[in-house]
Structures are given as structure tokens and as C-alpha cells.
Amino acid sequence: MIDPLALFDHDFGEARRVLEPRDAIIYALGVGLGRDPLDAADLRFLDERNLSVLPTYAVTLGTPGMWMRDPKFGIDFGKLVHMAQEAAFPTPLPASGEIVATAKVISLTDRGEGKGAVLSLERKITDAKSGALYCRLVQTLLLRGNGGFGGPPTGRTDGFAFDGECDASANFETSPRAALIYRLSGDWNPLHLDPEFARKAGFDRPILQGLASYAIGAIAASRALDRDPADVSHLVCRFSGIVMPGDMLRVDVWKDGDKAHFRGFVEDRKVLDAGEISWRKS
Length: 282
Known about the structure:
Layout: H1 4-9, E1 14-19, H2 21-30, H3 40-43, E2 80-88, E3 97-110, E4 117-127, E5 133-143, E6 168-173, H4 178-182, H5 195-200, H6 210-224, E7 232-239, E8 248-256, E9 259-266, E10 269-279
Antiparallel strand pairs: 1-3, 2-5, 2-7, 3-4, 4-5, 6-8, 7-10, 8-9, 9-10
């Protein structure tokens, strides 16, 4: 049985990390940049001599790792699914430097027996010297095996109405090795590596990390509107379907003033929903 008190009381401590250009480049490769080695728009995120850093790289920093596997929490880890992600990037992340990350569980709700529980984890990434906030993220996890524990019910929120034709669209082809490369940025969940573990979790084979799809959504939506992916300042999306390494992801975008909304599809199957994106520059 899941233990809410243990989750809310858990002390994550501080995580420190020295940033190096190599790690930002590995991240960019993991989310699919560099497929065309002559594409200048991709190479700026891969060239250490004058490196641009994807803002979404910040969400991989200072992660608490596989903390939920600790039996004291009572989480059925094999049935855990990354449900949604939100992050704000108020300050551009440098290629080099040192960061401090802190984390805490901010909510745990109950969808009911057989329907799972929903846990939200907040993490803040700051500069170790100046204290500048690089990223504040909220990771939402569906604990499919932990519903019915008697907690507060999961609420519903109304979002953007995706009516009519989209204003722009962009395709992004993922690599069959995408999940294996993305793991090098710190997601060691065997669901993305081990075929037997994936089958036990209900999938035919290892799936692409939700945060890789999250970054692809930002890149594709930005480029569909001729915006710079390096300027993303806020990004939200819900993971509504599974993306497999090697899938072609189509991102449809609707303009909405200074921001935009997007959805992602693999053929006709929706895999990203309720996407919202903003940029620093006009």
C-alpha cells in the first residue's frame, strides 16, 4: 500500500552538478538533433565551440533517480508512467557552470481502485553561485498500481479547445536508438532499455522516454512557427500515448497570442496533448 506520509516527508536533499558542454551535446543527440549532420539549425546545439543549449536540457539535471523504488513508499514501480510535464525556464541555461537542484512531492491524488494514483514532484534548478533560477518543473506521474488508497480525488481542468485546422505543422523522425541515447542524460528506468521489463509493464518493447517526446514537441512546435527552440521559456504537455523509438512524430500547432498550443501524433494516434509553449523573444 502506498504511504502518502512517507512521500511528503521524504528529504531529497540537494543535488549538485557541474555542467559541461559534452553533456548538453549528448542530450541534444538523445532528443534527435543531428540526424542530418549538415543541418546548421541542429549543429548549433552540437558544436562545443559556440554551443547553444536546449532549455529542456534543464529538466534532466539534479534528478533524484530511482528514489520511488524504495519499498518504504509502497509504489508499484513497474506500473509507473510519466503522465505530464510542465517547466518554466526563466533564465537561459549555460553550457558550463554548476547547478543546485532541490525536489519535493507537492501533491498525491487518488483516481480510485484499478485506476491509479497521480503524484506531482516539483524540482528547482538554480545556479550554485548566483542563485539564479534556471528551471522550475513539475513532473506528473501516474502510479497505475496504487489507486484506491483513500486519498483526495484527482480533479479535472479545462484546457485549450483545439478547434479547427492547426496554424502550422512539423514532422520529427525519431531514431530507433533514441531511448538508448537519451538514457545517457540520466533516465535509467529499464522500461526504456530492457525488453523483458517492458513486456512485464505491458508494452511490446522498450518505449521512448516521455521527456524525450517533451523536448521533441518543443523543437517541432518552435520550428513550425519559425521560432528558435533555444528561446523556449515555458513548456507544458500531457503524454497521452506511447512513442516508440523510430516513430515519426507530427506536431500540430495553434497560435494564441504570444504563446501557442500543440498536439503530437504518430500517424493518427495522439501521443502528446494539451501542449502549451512560450518563448523569451518576439
